[in-house]
User: Which sequence fits this backbone?
């Protein structure tokens, strides 16, 4: 190896290590439980039964990967009536994790048939707002900074409701929620083009989420769920614009072929994930390497893959792509761009994408006493088999009979 190559690879390793040091990704409690499609559920004996199991699984993922210290929770699914937030915090700590984003649920109750914040009935809107206020209070109790809002709201048929009125109802309800935030809390507003509303979704794209977040107040930001875009959409451009407007609050990571498929990250298009991370590194480079405060979160439901394996696979892919994208030399890129050297500019990205960063990631893991390959380590640990035995017995004792039925 020439002296030059050695020097280059040294500084490359440093870039990767620095990127890995600041990379953390939140796993979702619902990714550990039995979830399904609209048509059916395929049960896994090791699937989490309750929040305790989910926290244990999240703890195992963090123990093996070293970069998943928090868990997103869905209030209705994880905090049944009467549950004690202080006890949940203690339980999480016991498993070496903390409670991350709080996800209110205003789409499941019967009253939400015609929507929540957009519902034509003021009483239903108020109930939805109240649930969000309860979630904001809960977030304070469990030490969470993030309240992450996703709405199933919309209409299914032309003429069903007044689109402009729904927009205004949303703006008003979001403002009320924002008024109740503590100083260090952030309200994330997620968008999705369709499903379950098929004619018109109230927050259908990043522009609508941006306008609503802006009108809600300074602590509201946009959440980009990578699966919530039309097929040809340039997601990294959306990311770049939101960054430039300082309106990017966080991500829900997953991959998709069609729509909200919730496939594991990078399974279909790893280059897109790389390009998204590239925009973030580029922004950080221009702003004195001060990475903006963006919540990296996973939003995946694993129906077929074993849940813990799918989660760890996702985390490893995310780490790898974040590391690769940290290799882009932004100063050199700016020179190519100014010269209009399209090919050289593109090759900088392509070369970073195809660089094998495994050795440096393994070195990073070893320095922290983590296994070289967290996925292999999970398989060798016997954790899943043990969980399957214990949870199958507990399920039987509780009289839980899993049903996969759609109707
Ligand atoms: C939605 C959206 C939300 C998630 C729900 C369950 O499609 O991605 O973030 O909480 O699914
Ligand atoms: Mn999501
Ligand atoms: Mn989704």
Assistant:
């Amino acid at each position: 190896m020439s002296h030059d190559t050695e020097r280059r690879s040294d500084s490359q390793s440093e870039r990767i290590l620095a990127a890995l040091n600041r990379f953390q990704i939140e796993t979702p409690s619902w990714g550990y439980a039995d979830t399904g499609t609209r048509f059916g559920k395929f049960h896994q004996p090791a699937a989490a039964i309750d929040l305790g199991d989910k926290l244990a699984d999240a703890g195992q993922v963090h123990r093996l990967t070293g970069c998943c210290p928090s868990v997103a929770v869905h209030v209705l699914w994880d905090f049944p009536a009467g549950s004690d937030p202080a006890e949940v915090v203690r339980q999480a700590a016991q498993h070496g994790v903390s409670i991350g984003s709080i996800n209110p649920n205003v789409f499941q109750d019967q009253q939400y048939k015609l929507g929540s914040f957009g519902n034509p009935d003021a009483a239903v809107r108020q109930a939805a707002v109240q649930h969000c206020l309860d979630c904001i209070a809960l977030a304070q109790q469990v030490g969470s900074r993030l309240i992450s809002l996703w709405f199933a709201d919309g209409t299914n048929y032309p003429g069903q409701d007044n689109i402009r009125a729904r927009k205004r109802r949303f703006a008003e309800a979001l403002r009320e929620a924002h008024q109740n935030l503590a100083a260090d809390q952030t309200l994330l507003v997620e968008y999705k083009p369709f499903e379950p509303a098929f004619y018109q979704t109230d927050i259908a794209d990043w522009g609508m989420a941006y306008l609503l977040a802006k009108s809600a107040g300074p602590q509201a930001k946009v959440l980009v769920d990578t699966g919530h875009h039309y097929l040809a959409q340039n997601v990294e451009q959306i990311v770049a614009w939101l960054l430039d407007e300082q309106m990017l609050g966080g991500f829900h990571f997953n991959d998709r072929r069609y729509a909200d498929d919730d496939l594991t990250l990078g399974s279909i298009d790893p280059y897109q994930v790389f390009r998204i991370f590239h925009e973030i590194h580029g922004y950080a480079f221009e702003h004195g390497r001060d990475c903006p405060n963006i919540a990296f979160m996973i939003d995946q439901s694993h129906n077929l893959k074993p849940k813990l394996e799918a989660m760890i696979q996702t985390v490893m892919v995310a780490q790898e792509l974040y590391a690769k994208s940290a290799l882009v030399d932004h100063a050199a890129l700016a020179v190519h761009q100014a010269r209009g050297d399209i090919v050289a500019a593109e090759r900088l990205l392509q070369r970073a994408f195809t660089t094998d960063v495994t050795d440096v990631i393994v070195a990073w893991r070893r320095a922290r006493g983590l296994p070289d390959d967290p996925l292999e380590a999970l398989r060798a640990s016997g954790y899943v088999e043990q969980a399957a035995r214990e949870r199958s017995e507990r399920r039987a004792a509780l009289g839980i009979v899993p049903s996969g039925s759609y109707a």
The CA atoms of residues 115 and 243 lie 30 Å apart. The chain has a mean pLDDT of 95. Strands lie at 27-28, 70-74, 98-103, 146-149, 154-155, 186-190, 200-201, 220-225, 248-253, 295-298. The chain is about 50% helix and 10% strand.
